[in-house]
TrEMBL record, chain A:
<feature type="transmembrane region" description="Helical">
    <location>
        <begin position="254"/>
        <end position="271"/>
    </location>
</feature>
<dbReference type="InterPro" id="IPR003352">
    <property type="entry name" value="PTS_EIIC"/>
</dbReference>
<feature type="transmembrane region" description="Helical">
    <location>
        <begin position="141"/>
        <end position="162"/>
    </location>
</feature>
<feature type="transmembrane region" description="Helical">
    <location>
        <begin position="322"/>
        <end position="345"/>
    </location>
</feature>
<dbReference type="InterPro" id="IPR004718">
    <property type="entry name" value="PTS_IIC_mtl"/>
</dbReference>
<dbReference type="Pfam" id="PF02378">
    <property type="entry name" value="PTS_EIIC"/>
</dbReference>
<dbReference type="InterPro" id="IPR050893">
    <property type="entry name" value="Sugar_PTS"/>
</dbReference>
<dbReference type="GO" id="GO:0090563">
    <property type="term" value="F:protein-phosphocysteine-sugar phosphotransferase activity"/>
</dbReference>
<keyword id="KW-0598">Phosphotransferase system</keyword>
Automatic annotation (TrEMBL), chain B:
<keyword id="KW-0762">Sugar transport</keyword>
<dbReference type="InterPro" id="IPR050893">
    <property type="entry name" value="Sugar_PTS"/>
</dbReference>
<keyword id="KW-0418">Kinase</keyword>
<dbReference type="GO" id="GO:0016301">
    <property type="term" value="F:kinase activity"/>
</dbReference>
<keyword id="KW-0808">Transferase</keyword>
<dbReference type="GO" id="GO:0090563">
    <property type="term" value="F:protein-phosphocysteine-sugar phosphotransferase activity"/>
</dbReference>
<dbReference type="GO" id="GO:0009401">
    <property type="term" value="P:phosphoenolpyruvate-dependent sugar phosphotransferase system"/>
</dbReference>
<keyword id="KW-0813">Transport</keyword>
<keyword id="KW-0598">Phosphotransferase system</keyword>
Amino acid sequence: MASSFTPEVSGSGFRAGVQRLGGYLAGMVMPNIGAIIAWGLITAMFIPVGWVPNASLAELVDPMIKYLLPVLIGYTGGRMVHGRRGAVVGATATMGVIVGADVPMFLGAMIIAPLTAYVLKLFDNAIEGRIRPGFEMLVDNFSAGIVGAGFAILGKLAIGPVVNALTKAAGDGVDWLLDNSLMPLVSVLVEPAKVLFLNNAINHGVFSPLGVQQVAESGKSILFMIESNPGPGLGLLAAFLFFGPRSLRPTTPAAMIIHFFGGIHEIYFPYVLMKPRLILAMIAGGMAGVATFMVTGAGTVASPAPGSIFAFTAVTAKGSHVGMFLGVIVAAAVTFGVASLLLGFGRLKSDQEPGETAAADEPVADEPVAEQSPAVPAQRESTEDVRRENA
Amino acid sequence: MATINGKDIHKLVVACDAGMGSSVMLASTLRKQLGKSGVTVEHTPVNDIPADADVVVCHSGLAARARSVAPGKPIVPFQVFLGDPAVTRVVKAIQQGADLDV
């Protein structure tokens, strides 16, 4: 086992790079999910097609999506780059892209806020230790003020209109996929990326910005449901419970509860990574789920985060609950079926052989062999641990 | 290849992609298991591993990133979120003050 602890060279790999970029995007959105859900709930209740239409309270909807949420994202994005000072200039510059565009500026905030904070960071580093005593506050406040003002103007004049066009183009792309019934194909990309720990990057970095735009227009969006559908993961874990390697079966009921009710999808990723062919089951279930959502016209008003069935129920748009439950169940059933088939209904001898997983992993030369080969023996030990605990 | 003694671990960090989901779950499990030992258990995003962490626990799919963020720190990658032997080994090393190879 010692080999699996040995640090491999560095994080320069492609996968780590994509993860890192995605991590930044998701990191700007995720701390603010609470505010997005608040907005989603207010929208679901008070807009004209909502549960309890109320014109006066519905006035909250527009300013929250146009100003509050992008500014929060800008604040968080700036803070990631340059602490509290970065947060302040990030939020300030975000106002520029908001005013310079007529769609919710999530994407614009994600670009301009870190950029502004980075420029301030460069300035702060350049002048560090060169300020005369007593002038620090003056310099600090006015450097932040000038950088913030400059980037707000830049955002209004240049970045806002460009991102506006980009966001609209992306929105048109989504509409095109929906109009041509091609939305389920998105699962072909989403499901494999998800188990490589790009789940947050996809959901909050890509789908959330586009989804809120759809909600602002039509009161619901299918985009929030693509990555976060807990159905495929549930189906996979159920297949493992009945047909997985015997040593793995005892861990699955607890994993199912954490996944389906707690919404921590990460818990099922290792099961897929251990038997990479099961990604086909995930894709099939994901596609079936998205197709069901599409046919029934289901949508949610905000991102169900974490992807728990409770979160799903809470943010599903009025009139979409039947479609939502149907999509989750269909996705779980399809994944269960395909995964059971791929697991040979528990009768594959190879599943009990330790060598099998190492050979089947992605063909990247350096990492996986060292990482994946201990998986099966490790799993054996761990389930024995669980058994001992249970005994 | 390095060795760290369980007695020298004062702060254990569990890292995941966002620092909000799976790391919180594992950290609360470990906090319960290590309650008596006085070790601080924290959860963070993998990009924000604090400098004063003595040992970092994260899923092997994120280990490459953890190593680039915190070079030279003992990183313990694990495969499964429930009862992974790599994690169990860290807990035992801390409880018994034994050596841990990382």
